[in-house]
Each structure stands twice: as C-alpha cells, then as structure tokens.
Amino acid sequence: KRHLISAADLTRDDALLVLDTAEELAQIASRAVKKLPTLRGRTVVNLFFEDSTRTRISFEAAAKRLSADVINFSAKGSSVSKGESLKDTALTLEAMGADGVVIRHGASGAPHRLAGWVRGSVVNAGDGTHEHPTQALLDAFTMRKRLGDLEGRRVTIVGDVLHSRVARSNVLLLTTLGADVTVVAPPTLLPVAIDTWPCSVSYDLDGVLPKSDVIMMLRVQQERMNAAYFPTVREYSRRYGLDAERMAALPDHAIVMHPGPMNRGVEIAAEVADSVRSTIVEQVANGVSARMAVLYLLLGGSEPAIGQEVSQ
Ligand code: CP
C-alpha cells in the first residue's frame, strides 16, 4: 500500500504486520540502538495545519530514528496566512523532494485530496472529525502489549464520539482485529450515522464497566462544540466521567486509556489518569514505535532491513 488515510485501508494482515513491525522496532530501541539506516536519503514532511503535541513530535522522532531527513511545516507562520491553498502548499513542499507527507488538517478528507496531488506516500495524522489511523494503531499496540491478542476483547470507548477521529479509527481497526467495541456517549455527542459503525452503542457507562477489558476515555472537544450539544461540564462528568469509584468497577486486569490531550476533571479524574491502570504515558511512547512501523512499511521499500542497525 502507498498511503495510510483510513484505518479501513488496513486488512487484518496489514494491521498485524504494522503491529508486529512496531514490536520489533521497539525491541531494537530497547537494546539502546538509537537509529536504523532504513530511510536514509528519504525525506518526510510533517505538514500540520492543526495544533498537535504528541503526533507531530512522535512522527518527527520516528522519521529521525529511521535516518530520514525531516521537514516540519506548521501552517502558523507560513504563507497559508496569505491565502495559499493546501494544493499549492503541498506542491511547494513536494518540489523540495518529499517522499512521504504526514498531514494533520482541520478538514475531513484533506489527506485523501492530498494523495491525488503528490507523488509521495500520504499518512493521515488526523483530519477534522474523520480519522486518526496511527492513533488507533498505537492504541491497538498498547492493548496488545498489556492484554495479548485482541480477538474477543471488550473495548469501551466513552465520550465525545461525535467530534472524535480517534473513536472512528479505533472502532474500525479494533473490529478488524476481532475486538468487540462498545461506544458510550450522550445521545447528542453521537454521530447521526452511528448505526453504520461496526460497534454497539450504550448510554449506561456504569452498566458496561464490569464487562470491559479496556476503557478508552475521549477528550471533550470544546473547540468543535456547538454549545447546544453539550450538557454542563458538571453534568457531563457525573454521567460520563471516569472517577476512582467508577474505575473500581472495572475487572482487575482492565486498563484505562486516553489519547491525550486530557481535560482532567472533565472526562477523566486526575487520580485515574495517574493511576497504575492508566496507559496514557505508555501510549505516547508506543506512538513512536507505531509511527516508525508505518513509515518503514510505506517508505522503506527494498532498502536495508530492520536487522541492519546503526548504533549511535
Ligand atoms: N492524541 C493526539 O493526537 O494528540 P496531539 O493532538 O497532541 O497530537
């Protein structure tokens, strides 16, 4: 495959290949091998039209650990403020020799359009309320490390599903991997087309907690919220927030996830976010391995294989 635009692009075999490759890369990194030569001579452009901490930094770290040259582009401070279009921006960067373009954009579908304009591989790093496939990959990687095979595992995704590209990509990828996914949200924070998603829907968080192997809390996306959609923060936290009392209702082996950034005290209590069940910091670390695997598989071609390490 040339691009990664949607989690639906991945068959079960594709997804397992990415996860196994990420595991192999993480093991190499744990042997204090900082860099692999795989993408030497290749250029990766990080094209960010929306703010990001985790995704932007981890794609940069991933590309550098594979020895690629990295160009970081942020719309803020660029000629986008003078009205330059996405297409002209992309063609300008391609003229500088991009083999891979990692794009985050506020418009759903922007990575798909970009893939039609540039010769290199396009990786979706989050487009509007649509998808965030590498987040789903790093989440699946984290679940596999903690819980083993995902076949039959019960994953509950809670919160602002309406605005969440993380939720959509996770539902698609996790069901491809055989997990049983339930989304829990206020009716006003569910997409109109939720019936077409391959998951169950519940409005009763307390009812699903004891049956969950994973609980994934979503950020309440105030910046995309129409005030009419949202109950008060207090009411939301009371009905859909994960506090210590609710966490105690989970099975002993269950893990608590959040893609970040978090609204502590809204969708997740600080003591839950910082608890031993939380994988939130682990998810960030795993993001580098998962993104290395994606770049390696899309751009690596027949260049030096994983086994050829460069210690630095
Ligand atoms: N999870 C995630 O995409 O975080 P950033 O917005 O900080 O990249």
Automatic annotation (TrEMBL):
Residues 152-298 form the Aspartate/ornithine carbamoyltransferase Asp/Orn-binding domain. It comes from Actinomadura physcomitrii. HAMAP family: Asp_carb_tr (MF_00001). GO terms for molecular function: amino acid binding; aspartate carbamoyltransferase activity. Heterododecamer (2C3:3R2) of six catalytic PyrB chains organized as two trimers (C3), and six regulatory PyrI chains organized as three dimers (R2). It is an enzyme of class 2 (transferase). It catalyses: carbamoyl phosphate + L-aspartate = N-carbamoyl-L-aspartate + phosphate + H(+). This is Aspartate carbamoyltransferase. It holds the Pfam family OTCace_N. GO terms for cellular component: cytosol. NCBIfam families: asp_carb_tr (TIGR00670), PRK00856.1 (NF002032). Pathway: Pyrimidine metabolism; UMP biosynthesis via de novo pathway; (S)-dihydroorotate from bicarbonate: step 2/3. Belongs to the aspartate/ornithine carbamoyltransferase superfamily. ATCase family. Catalyzes the condensation of carbamoyl phosphate and aspartate to form carbamoyl aspartate and inorganic phosphate, the committed step in the de novo pyrimidine nucleotide biosynthesis pathway. One of its GO terms (biological process) is 'de novo' UMP biosynthetic process. The keyword Transferase applies. The lineage of its organism: Bacteria, Bacillati, Actinomycetota, Actinomycetes, Streptosporangiales. PROSITE patterns: CARBAMOYLTRANSFERASE (PS00097). Keywords: Pyrimidine biosynthesis, Transferase. L-aspartate binds at residues 82, 165, 219. The keyword Nuclease does not apply. Residues 2-144 form the Aspartate/ornithine carbamoyltransferase carbamoyl-P binding domain. Its EC number is 2.1.3.2. Carbamoyl phosphate binds at residues 54-55, 104, 132, 135, 260-261.
